[in-house]
Amino acid sequence: MIATHAAVPGFKPFAASASAVRRSSSHANAAPKRPSIAPKLSINIKHIRENPDLYTKTCNDRNYLAQKANPQRIVQLFNASNQLRVDARDVRRRNNNIQDRLEVLRRSEAHGQGTTIDEQDQLLLEAETLKPTLNSISSSEADLDYEIESLAAELPNLTSEETPIGKEPRLLGYINERPEISIPVNHVDIGKDLGLLDFAAASTTSGWGWYFLKDEGALLEQALIHYALSVAIQHGFSVVSPPSMVYSHIASACGFQPRDQGGEQQSYMIAQPEKLSPFESAHEGKPGLTLAGTAEIPFAAMKANTTLQDRELPLQIVGASRCYRAEAGARGIDTKGLYRVHEFTKVEMFSWITKGKELAAFESLLAVQKEILQSLGLHCRILEMPSTDLGASATRKVDIEAFFPSRRARDDGYGEVTSASICTDYQTRRLNTRLKLASPGQTKTDFPYTVNGTALAVPRVLAALLENGWNQEQKVVKVPEVLHDWMHGIRTIEKST
């Protein structure tokens, strides 16, 4: 009598239990499939399984409430996956025995030895009967593994011990003295009076949240870019000009989601033609594209699917790019003028380093930021940012906020102009960026750490320079000395006659 999977001793029906696992999780239906061209994820799921409470606490501390159940869910799914494999062990063993016996019979037949045709037929029939069961097992295992990986990918990085838990930052220090300005003037009024800014024309061409920089305003933007690049170069950074558009799965791997934790749209998604290129799959459709909110994203992906050599590190790059943010905030003091816009120029720094060298690399970023802001004459405060202010990829973040005289009614006049983050191996594990470590007698592969930081965000720094450099009596703006070389001899900006 032919033995089917139902007759295999000790085998439990697995299909129903696996289906129940999948049905019990709404995430399985909600998570979009990663395209086949996406870098392979290498998240340390074992660490999550062994420390679910730590990851749940991290989600709570960082206000990732939608993800706080993920760690326990991963444990449940892993247990279900293990049970599925245990339940399927006997049917797989039986299938292997059939294949081994068929191979013996084929060899015997090839050497002219007689074989029992009935036995071969019975074995082939049984193997054919087992095939749907084996396929179902493999499919269920793949579904469980994919959901575990997807849930793990949604979790934020673990939080550094240096990071204050909660909503309040910790003051680390100041840059330059706070100026005494009796009558503050908003940069919007200064820019309009001097003919540097045009928001009305931009609202016609693009809508609210865009702007034109004109004449000395446009020159000042270019001067700031060149100066920031020159300082970073002096600190050992190499210049790279990145693309502004990236695949959506690349942005996600870097810790940037289309919507924030409050459901606000953050990214501009690009509509694409239906016609597929020769490199695209009809089954998967076209991979999503998004405008990068920061050069950190294309910089990080620059080494995706790459193995770096430890002798190459630290690898430090800097570049200017246009950045795009869909959520520019509600109208009001926080968003008036250049402070919060949809499109802007930013000079970004990014480094790959070996584990253990991240603090030195982080301090290098901060040194560039401090040098730039100090030489521009801006009064700033330096803050260790709290857990609720950290992005998904960061384990630690330090912001530098410049003083805006017109914003004294909010945050005592301070507003963020730079930030720097340590991301450990969060991004490299999601982008398949590996590191070959060579030591005497052996070579091993690991994941490099990354750090990133803003060298200079042009609109906000430009706005701060206008407000702090404004001379109310003379109706002019003083240009910082370090920018003179790029301002074509202009030392003060005044109204054109």
Brief description of this entry?
The chain is of the alpha+beta class. The protein has helices at about 15-25, 25-30, 45-50, 50-60, 70-110, 115-155, 185-195, 200-205, 215-235, 250-255, 295-300, 360-375, 425-430, 460-470; strands at about 170-175, 195-200, 210-215, 240, 245, 270, 290, 305-310, 315-325, 345-355, 380-385, 395-405, 415-420, 435-440, 440-445, 450-455, 470, 475-480, 490-495. The chain is built from 14 helices and 19 strands.
Radius of gyration: 29 Å
- Kindly state the percentage of residues in helix: 25-40%
- Detail the poorly predicted runs: 1-31
Quantity of strands, as a count: 19
Mean pLDDT: 86
Please report the number of helical segments: 14
Largest sheet strand order: 1-11-12-13-16-10-9-4
Structural class: alpha+beta
Can you give keywords for this protein?
single chain; about 500 residues; alpha+beta; 8-stranded mixed β-sheet; about 20% strand; disordered N terminus
Give your account of this protein's structure.
The chain contains 14 helices and 19 strands. The radius of gyration is 29 Å and the shape is elongated. Helix 5 packs antiparallel against helix 6. The N and C termini lie far apart (104 Å). 38% of the residues lie in helices and 20% in strands. By secondary structure, the chain is an alpha+beta fold. The strands form 5 sheets. Strands 1-11-12-13-16-10-9-4 form an 8-stranded mixed sheet. A 3-stranded antiparallel sheet has the order 5-7-6. A 3-stranded mixed sheet has the order 8-14-15.
